[in-house]
Structure formats: structure tokens, C-alpha cells
């Protein structure tokens, strides 16, 4: 299963010694990555902006309270100092730090706008030669409702900006748009912010939802290009709230047709902006072609953890090659499945301290070292030698499994998930099933998947 196109060189050998990483984010969402870097023998310090996430990975990761005060620590590491950004709202800061000579991996101001300003993102897609769905931008909920009255249809409502949770968006169900119209009128009565809202109505598209992602080294895309099928809703069968992501099927094979038709065309604008990091493009594919929807211009969570399961080399090697403007990175054949394990009140935050924070995390039987590497912790704390739930919402960990085919990856992931014991644990049990039952055949018919 291992893909051996490139030698598995350690980052210490590449860079002449250990690396020094400063992680900067809101809620420690790259915690599992930081643990990998520590395990590989590198130095790591992490800044977490959200007070409600102060206990995430407490006792497991070195933490700092002022990331700017740590810049001399990064600077003294020279070429081996790297700053990792988790978010897509500090691109201007990243650009400034790059101008000051730091190695920064995360995104750029251009990347922030690609993700947060949906109309701008769609315009960039068109400029790159991609076809796009019809998108209308609004700053008034009632005006948008009147638009639907005049042009009935099925629409998707999406707020602009990185501050809004995925659950605020809505995928319309009715062909005349009556449900979206009713939602807009409700939003009009609830909006209390002094500034006007900013949102889009996008033409609804029917087809296979599939994403493509790659690592950009500041000049070009690296060789490792992934393809993914996300499961965004809370319940099996794609029912319930949009949570961001409850689990995903990924592979580093078979992605090239989709990549070349879409994301590869963004290389020029990304290079011009100084972008360095991971970027993903979500699409709908159907008989009408490929329809790009939106960019993720940062390390997606849980996406990065699931991709980790298919890496033949560590994150340290990837980052060392990225800052050296190299393109090689070795990945495994086959598929990985990632399953998000949660506790109440996820996907909400209210009463988390009362309901679930501090619950013990236990396992059925002794886990092997290989099995433990498929546990990617997030809202977890080590308290008096016991792992317990922490953080702000109940997004506890991602469990992954790999296999030569999707069925084997599902069996591995769910076999391991079943060994995690947390009171009131909840997760979807159908990750990857849609690909087996429908998506694979459709993509093959469209020439976007081998076989």
C-alpha cells in the first residue's frame, strides 16, 4: 500500500536539525498536528486566542499567552523556524510576517478573501476559466426575499465572513424557494448588528459533492493532491444541522482530472499573493460539468487529520519541503475514512460545561502504537493522568482508518471508533457509504474517477 516514489527523509536531515514551530489560532484546531510534530522531536509552542479553548490539549502541548512575544524564539531558529496559522482571518498578518523574513504556512490576505467573500471567490474562479453557478449578493434580507418572489427557484443561502458557523447557512429544499424566503424574513427580524448583513443566494445544483485540495509552496502546487467527499450534516443520511464536517472520505489517488480542471488554474493568483499552505476547492459535478462552490484557504479540520493517515512522511517533512519551495511529498495508495466523535451539546456550545466537559475518555482494550496514531485529539485534556473532554463544544477527536478500498477503510475506522468509550458519545456511522452506493458510479460515468 505504501507509495515509495520519494525517499522518506526526516525533516531534521533536510533542514540540518530540529524545527521550531509556533502555532497561532483561535481554538487549537491543529492540536493533533502539533502532537505529531512534538513526537517527531521538534520544538512546538501554541497560542490559543479563545478563552473557552484554553484547556484544549492542556497537559499535552506547550502553550503561550502572547504569540508576538514568541517571534524572537522563532527568529533565532533561522531557516528552521516556522509559524503555522490555523485561521483564514489573519492573512494580512501572515503577509507582513513573510515580508519580515519569517517562514509562514497557512494562507494570505488573498486567501482570506477567497474564502470569506463568496462573490469574490466566484469571480476568481471565472477569471481562471471555471464555470460557476449563478450567485446573487445581498445586504438586505427583505430585498433577497423579494428577489425569490420574482425569480422562484431552489437556492442556497450563505453568509459572507469567517465569523459565522456553518449552521447559519441553509440549503433550500423547495423548488420555488419558499423555504429560503421564509428563512430570510426570519433573519430580517433577528439581525441586530449595526452593520448590514452580507450574504449570497446561490443557484442550487444537483450532483456529486466532491472536493480537491493541495499544498501550495508559494510558487507552485506540490505533488500531493487529494480528493475528498465530505459529510457535513449531523445525522446519518445527511439529515440535521450543517456542522462543518462530521466525517470525510479522502484519497491521494484519482484526483488529477478534477484538480487540473479547477484548482490547478489558481496557481498564478496564489503565487502572486504569496500564499503558502493548504487550499481546498469544494465542487458539484454533474452532467453539466464541474461547478466550483467555495474555497477553504487554511488547513481544514478534520480534513488535515484524515489526510495525515495517508502520509508516508510526516508533517515536518512536508513543511520543510514547502518552505524550501520543493514539490515532492510521499503519500500512500488507497483511501482514508475520518469519523468525528462528539458529545452533547455539539454542534452547539450552550451548557457544554454542565453537560459534557470533564468526561473521562477511555478505551476498550489496550491500543497498539499503530492504532493510537489513528486517534487525532481535539477537545481533550490530560488531567491528573486521565484523558478528559475539554474545550468549548464537544468536538472530541477524529478517528481514522485506511484501506486499499473504501470498504476496508470504513471497517478500520469504525472498528477503532467502537473502542473509544466516552459517556454519551455520538458520531455518524455512514461515512463513505454514499460513495460506494452512488458517487463512485456517477464520477466514473463523468470521466472524473478511474475504473
What does this entry look like structurally?
There is one protein chain. This protein starts with 10 loop residues before the first helix and ends in a 6-residue tail after the last helix. The chain is of the alpha+beta class and 451 residues long. 29% of the residues lie in helices and 28% in strands. The protein contains 16 helices and 21 strands. Among the domains are: 70 residues, Dna Ligase, domain 1 (2-Layer Sandwich), CATH 3.30.1490; 97 residues, Alpha-Beta Complex (Glycinamide Ribonucleotide Synthetase, Chain A, domain 4). Strands 14-13-10-11-12-15-20-17 form an eight-stranded antiparallel β-sheet, with helices on both faces. The N terminus is likely disordered.
Amino acid at each position: 500500500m505504501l507509495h515509495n516514489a520519494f525517499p522518506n527523509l526526516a525533516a531534521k536531515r533536510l533542514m540540518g536539525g530540529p524545527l521550531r514551530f509556533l502555532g497561532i489560532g483561535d481554538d487549537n484546531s491543529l492540536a493533533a498536528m502539533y502532537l505529531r510534530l512534538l513526537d517527531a522531536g521538534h520544538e512546538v509552542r501554541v497560542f490559543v486566542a479563545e478563552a473557552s479553548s484554553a484547556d484544549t490539549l492542556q497537559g499535552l502541548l506547550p502553550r503561550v499567552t502572547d504569540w508576538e512575544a514568541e517571534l524572537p524564539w522563532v527568529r533565532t531558529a533561522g531557516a528552521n523556524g516556522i509559524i503555522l496559522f490555523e485561521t483564514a482571518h489573519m492573512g494580512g498578518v501572515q503577509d507582513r510576517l513573510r515580508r519580515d523574513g519569517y517562514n509562514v504556512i497557512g494562507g494570505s490576505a488573498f486567501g482570506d478573501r477567497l474564502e470569506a467573500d463568496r462573490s469574490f471567490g466566484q469571480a476568481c474562479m471565472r477569471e481562471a476559466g471555471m464555470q460557476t453557478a449563478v450567485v446573487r449578493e445581498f445586504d438586505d434580507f427583505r430585498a433577497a426575499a423579494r428577489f425569490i418572489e420574482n425569480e422562484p427557484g431552489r437556492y442556497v443561502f450563505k453568509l459572507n465572513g469567517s465569523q459565522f458557523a456553518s449552521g447559519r447557512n441553509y440549503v433550500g429544499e423547495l423548488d420555488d424557494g419558499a423555504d429560503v424566503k421564509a428563512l430570510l424574513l426570519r433573519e430580517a427580524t433577528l439581525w441586530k448588528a449595526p452593520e448590514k448583513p452580507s450574504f449570497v443566494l446561490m443557484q442550487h445544483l444537483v450532483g456529486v459533492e466532491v472536493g480537491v485540495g493541495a499544498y501550495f509552496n508559494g510558487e507552485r502546487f506540490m505533488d500531493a493532491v487529494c480528493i475528498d467527499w465530505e459529510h457535513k450534516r449531523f445525522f446519518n443520511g445527511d439529515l440535521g444541522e450543517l456542522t462543518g464536517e462530521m466525517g470525510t472520505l479522502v484519497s491521494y489517488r484519482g484526483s488529477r482530472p478534477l484538480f487540473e480542471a479547477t484548482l490547478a488554474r489558481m496557481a498564478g493568483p496564489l503565487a502572486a499573493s504569496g500564499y503558502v499552505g493548504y487550499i481546498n476547492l469544494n465542487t458539484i459535478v454533474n452532467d453539466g460539468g464541474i461547478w466550483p462552490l467555495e474555497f477553504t484557504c487554511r488547513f481544514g479540520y478534520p480534513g488535515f487529520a484524515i489526510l495525515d493517515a495517508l502520509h508516508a512522511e510526516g508533517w515536518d517533512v512536508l513543511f520543510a519541503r514547502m518552505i524550501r519551495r520543493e514539490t515532492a511529498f510521499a503519500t500512500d495508495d488507497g483511501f482514508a475514512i475520518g469519523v468525528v466523535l462528539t458529545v452533547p451539546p455539539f454542534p452547539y456550545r450552550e451548557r457544554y460545561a454542565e453537560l459534557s466537559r470533564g468526561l473521562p475518555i477511555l478505551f476498550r482494550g489496550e491500543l497498539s502504537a499503530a492504532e493510537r496514531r489513528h486517534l487525532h485529539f481535539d477537545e481533550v485534556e490530560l488531567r491528573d493522568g486521565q484523558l478528559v473532554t475539554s474545550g468549548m463544544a464537544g468536538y472530541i477527536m477524529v478517528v481514522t482508518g485506511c484501506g486499499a478500498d473504501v470498504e476496508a477503510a470504513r471497517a478500520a475506522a469504525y472498528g477503532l471508533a467502537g473502542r473509544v468509550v466516552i459517556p454519551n458519545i455520538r458520531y455518524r456511522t455512514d461515512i463513505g457509504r454514499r460513495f460506494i452506493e452512488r458517487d463512485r458510479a456517477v464520477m466514473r460515468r463523468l470521466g472524473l474517477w478511474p475504473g
